[in-house]
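Readers outside the structure-tokenisation community will struggle with the description of the input data as it stands. Showing the layout once, in full, would remove most of the difficulty. For illustration, here is how one protein appears when written out as sequence plus structure tokens:
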Amino acid sequence: MNRIPCMEAVVAVLESEGVDTVFGIPGAAILPLYAALQHSSVRHVTVRHEEGGTHAADGWARATGNVGVCIGTSGPAGTNMITGLYTAMADSIPMICVTGQAATAKLHQEAFQAVDIVEIARPVTKWAVQLKEPAQAPWVFREAFRIARSGRPGPVLIDLPIDVQRGSCLYDRELDAPLAVEVPEPLPRVVRRAVDLLAGARRPIILAGGGVIIADACDELRALAEHLQVPVQVTLMGKGAFPEDHPLFAGMAGTQTQTRWGNAAFLESDLVLAVGARFGDRHTGDLDVYRRGRTFVHVDIEPTQIGRVFEPDLGIVGHARPVLAGLLDEARGRSGPQEPGKWVSRIGELRRTMARRDDFDDVPIKPPRVFKEINDYFGRDTTFVTAIGLYQIWSGQFQTTYLPRRYLVCGQAGPLGWEVPAAMGVRLAHPERQVVAVVGDYSFQFLMEEVAVAAQYRVPFVIIMINNEYLGLIRQAELPYDMNFAVDLHYGEGGIDHVKAMEAFGCPARRVELPGDLRDALAWASAESARERLPVLVEVMVEREANAAMGPSLEAIKEFEPLPELITADWSD
């Protein structure tokens, strides 16, 4: 083997692991790694904030299914990455954050920008490690990629002391390759038991969580649903796992991001096959209502996830793809394809009769109208990115999705500011795709400096801002306390002219105040973004809609509890 700088070996590992783009900010304590990067095929995008870099790597990872990479120097670079690590951990996103560090001999002396980032990051990573020897460098990175991808995916942090980075190691890239990742398969007898339960149910549904998308198991999901004629619901993280215009699509249940008819369908079901879903509290609401009268089969790759929120009637440990394939093989072995029955017809009836209006012509613009125009204008292959707040809730309620990895949302951690850098990461991963970031006015301001990065590197995408000129979700939470901690953001009273802000970054922007102007504005933004190779903003001024996600609406799942006659009706065919 040849002896080479150990950071060159690290870069060779990145290349062989399929990483073509990394995000970061160079600094003194990480320069040996950057010196190796400049002679590689890996593109480096210099961001304006390390948190923005983590979110960009996160978006790249969600769009590709590969491991995203973010790099920073020592001290505050690493602490700035913690929010991004937490976000990736919460949403099961494979990512590696690399930090520089002071020399090992100085770590106990409170050296400049020396912080124990490994201990800080440990609670929000699958593995946090400091490189101790140059000879370990390629192997620590190989293991980091394996851990990030294995089981329930997640983030890893690798800390690189400057003296270790300057070392060398024996390495031959021709003798090295990515480490194998286990794909756990279910026990045949538990698969048979699950099919027994499905066959015995009269109103079953399949609940597809984000794990179905992560496992690239959407084809298996659809084949199983169509063979058995079992309706499919999705969680917020599972949007795109099943096409929402399919006759078997049964909506989305929940307390915030939900459809009315999805809640009704769920409450009429008698069996739930949950695949790759973790039963988050914004999905389940009141567990007594959620569980009542239903049998649950829970499939998850992470054994400790089963029974964490409530005990299912049957737990299946396994990767979503072989589990769904196994269920399909077992079902096919028992009978031919089923015909749609009364339960499927009932799902269609609920969809027709309980869909919410979205065709309002009111001024100020009602948020549902914005999403109607988004649904009508953008194609099925468009990738949407959204974050947290009322606009995310409206998006979950009204936006339609058809394909996996086309609806990306920071579901569990919900960091404001996630959308712009994540959209940039998605577009860099898939330059051929239309990318649209749906943002709130306040969230946009958290990391809007990353617009400058997209402009610098000519990364085009459309930003649609839902602006109600206040922190809607926070204001609604404050109301019972009779307080208002400066959450109103009118222009001139703490608000920002977002059109001028975008123009300051050299990017086009337009404000829309009339519903009839929405479609033209979306067409203009799409054309401008493609022509100028820049992010383009459409700021939509909407009404201040009360109780969109809090207060009485938290009881929505109870509101649609079925009447007794629906539970006792004859569903046999």
User: Anything to note?
Assistant: The chain has a mean pLDDT of 90.
